[in-house]
């Protein structure tokens, strides 16, 4: 096998595999090292893809159970076959990970299986079992992603106390599931199991869920999830989780009263964040600097403190999102090929794939206040959107934030049906520096959910038509 490359990418997740494919497309001799046994990283194997599969399947089940009969679709013997549902999810994962392998072949990326260690600024040693092989490269890209964090002293066994990985493969529906942490993972996986029949309680340290999200959207989101049956205990810091006979007991302190309380359940999902995964990379020895949170430090060209070694995705600062990693992967490939690779960090959308979805891009109202920027707000509820109304999915609204003087769109925050897809229009508008008026004057097809965006843009100047 070839041992000398222009680029070696360590990690075959969305950041790494996209970087490898783009590098090869640009004529660079490229290899990608991956230890998992399948390509696609956390996202395809145990993250975005399997969770979206289960979110879709569980939503179908919920609709069949709760909504269909009112709509004249009567099912007399509805049953949940969790084993089959899990197989369907696994099949989706398999198809997609194999798809990446095919793309590697098509683009002539060398796929090296094993765990990579940076042995020198131009060398990566790959271990596969006992076998060690060293490969040489002009450039190295670190794309090793992140791993779940836990609480001090808490061991995740992936059976009773699970991270997102275990929560994606439970063999039966837990009677009571406690979710520690009301962020992206907790709310997506909490929704899945709640729809399938678990009594779900979210224990959250802060006084609100989804930290960093526009607060009005976050409050509405919590209200909607509560209506769907998810219970919230906010302002509570979890101290310990213990297995006591057949029950799991969670001890927590109420931040307001400082009183200790406890609650028991049969499964716990620990979703208190993720941290960069750089174990065994040998960073210190080769002189690569990391910050206090363990994130590899990079300059605006995504170069680490060692000139020819780059880092992208969850191992560096910024939101831990697959599409952010992909953009960085492309930027690095282009920089290495002598082009002007660049990522616009002001326009990275974020989506929570619950039902309804939550989607956001740009600045939140809280951020604009903090920056002392003058802004106008336009809002439009899905209750007044005809398509949402006929589909019986009227929860949520669109919120457009625009500069008071220039009318430039500064942020768009949506909670509502299909907004995970609709946010792309807003990201594009922001990339083009659109004003709220530009969006308001763009003809949107009727009847579609996207008309709610147009109406919210019209509402920025108080001229919405349907509300
Ligand atoms: P997160 O950072 O989104 O939320 C963690 C939550 O746990 C916070 O609200 C925090 O206040 C709370 N918390 C921390 N310590 C606690 C304690 N002792 N007691 C109670 N609450 C506590 O982290 P999460 O949900 O684990 O997600 C990790 C990463 O994965 C995120 O960065 C997210 O961007 C990414 N992700 C993205 C998805 C998407 O794009 N749809 C889906 C899933 C994950």
Attribute tags:
alpha/beta, 3 domains, binds 1,4-dihydronicotinamide adenine dinucleotide, FAD/NAD(P)-binding domain, 32% helix, 467 residues, 14 helices, Enolase-like, domain 1, 7-stranded mixed β-sheet
Percent strand equals 25-35%
Query: Could you estimate the helical fraction of the residues in percent?
Result: 25-40%
List bound small molecules: 1,4-dihydronicotinamide adenine dinucleotide
Number of helices: 14
Biggest beta sheet attributes: 7 strands, mixed
Shape: globular
Task: Set down the secondary structure blueprint.
Layout: E1 4-10, H1 14-25, E2 30-34, H2 41-46, H3 48-67, H4 82-107, E3 110-113, E4 115-120, E5 123-128, E6 131-142, E7 146-148, E8 161-162, H5 164-167, E9 176-180, H6 184-195, E10 199-203, H7 215-227, E11 231-233, E12 236-244, E13 247-254, E14 260-265, E15 267-270, E16 274-276, H8 283-286, E17 309-311, H9 322-336, E18 350-352, E19 357-362, H10 365-370, E20 375-381, H11 386-390, E21 397-403, E22 409-416, H12 419-431, H13 436-440, H14 451-459
Parallel strand pairs: 1-2, 1-6, 2-3, 6-17, 8-15, 9-10, 9-15, 10-11
Antiparallel strand pairs: 4-5, 5-6, 7-16, 12-13, 13-14, 18-19, 19-22, 20-21, 21-22
Bound molecules: 1,4-dihydronicotinamide adenine dinucleotide.
1,4-dihydronicotinamide adenine dinucleotide binds at residues 151, 180-186, 188, 203-206, 211, 237-238, 271-274, 319-321, 351-353.
Can you give a write-up of this model?
- The protein is of the alpha/beta class and 467 residues long.
- The protein has three domains: 4-148 and 275-343, FAD/NAD(P)-binding domain; 161-272, FAD/NAD(P)-binding domain, CATH 3.50.50; 347-459, Enolase-like, domain 1 (2-Layer Sandwich).
- The chain has helices spanning 14-25, 41-46, 48-67, 82-107, 164-167, 184-195, 215-227, 283-286, 322-336, 365-370, 386-390, 419-431, 436-440, 451-459; strands at 4-10, 30-34, 110-113, 115-120, 123-128, 131-142, 146-148, 161-162, 176-180, 199-203, 231-233, 236-244, 247-254, 260-265, 267-270, 274-276, 309-311, 350-352, 357-362, 375-381, 397-403, 409-416.
- Strands 1, 2, 3, 4, 5, 6 and 17 form a seven-stranded mixed beta sheet that branches. A five-stranded parallel beta sheet has the order 8-15-9-10-11. A five-stranded antiparallel beta sheet has the order 18-19-22-21-20, sandwiched between helices.
- The longest helix is centred in the first third of the chain and has 26 residues, at 82-107.
- It starts with a strand and ends in an 8-residue tail after the last helix.
- The model has no long low-confidence stretch (mean pLDDT 97).
